[in-house]
C-alpha cells in the first residue's frame, strides 16, 4: 500500500512561497489522471496533458490563464504542462490529463 500524497513548500525565483504535491508514486504531482480518446471534454483540475497519439486540444480554460488558447497541437509521446486547467476540449487524438 502506497503512502498518501504530501505537499512540499519552496520558494520560487521571485521569492514567493509555492507548494507542490508529491504523489504516492514518488513523483511531483498527483498519480491520478483521466484519459480521453477522440473528441470530448474533460472538466476537473489538470496540470499536465500527455498525448498517446498526435492530438489537438480545441480549447482549454483556467482561472490562471490570461487570453485564449485554441488549436493546441501536442505531438505523440509529449507532455504539455499547463496552468491549472479546469477544462480541456479535445478535438482529435488520445490524451491523459493528470490531476493537479
Would you mind describing this structure in some detail?
This protein is mostly beta strands. The chain has two domains: 1-29, no CATH class; 32-99, Jelly Rolls (Sandwich). The chain is built from no helices and eight strands. It has strands spanning 6-11, 17-22, 33-37, 40-51, 55-61, 70-74, 79-92, 94-99. The protein has a six-stranded antiparallel β-sheet, with no helix packed on it. A two-stranded antiparallel sheet has the order 1-2. Strand 5 and strand 6 (70-74) form a beta hairpin. The radius of gyration is 14 Å and the shape is globular. The model has no long low-confidence stretch (mean pLDDT 84).
Key phrases:
single chain; globular; 61% strand; 2 domains; 0% helix; two-stranded antiparallel sheet; mainly beta; 100 residues; Jelly Rolls
Short description:
With 100 residues, the chain is mainly beta. It has strands at residues 6-11, 17-22, 33-37, 40-51, 55-61, 70-74, 79-92, 94-99. It is built from no helices and eight strands.
Average per-residue pLDDT, rounded, comes to 84
Radius of gyration (Å): 14 Å
The portion of residues forming beta strands comes to over 45%
- In DSSP terms (H or I, runs of 4 or more residues), the helix count works out at 0
- Low-pLDDT runs of 5+ residues are none
Q: What is the topological layout?
A:
Elements (H helix, E strand, L loop, with lengths): L5 E6 L5 E6 L10 E5 L2 E12 L3 E7 L8 E5 L4 E14 L1 E6 L1
Antiparallel strand pairs: 1-2, 3-8, 4-7, 4-8, 5-6, 5-7
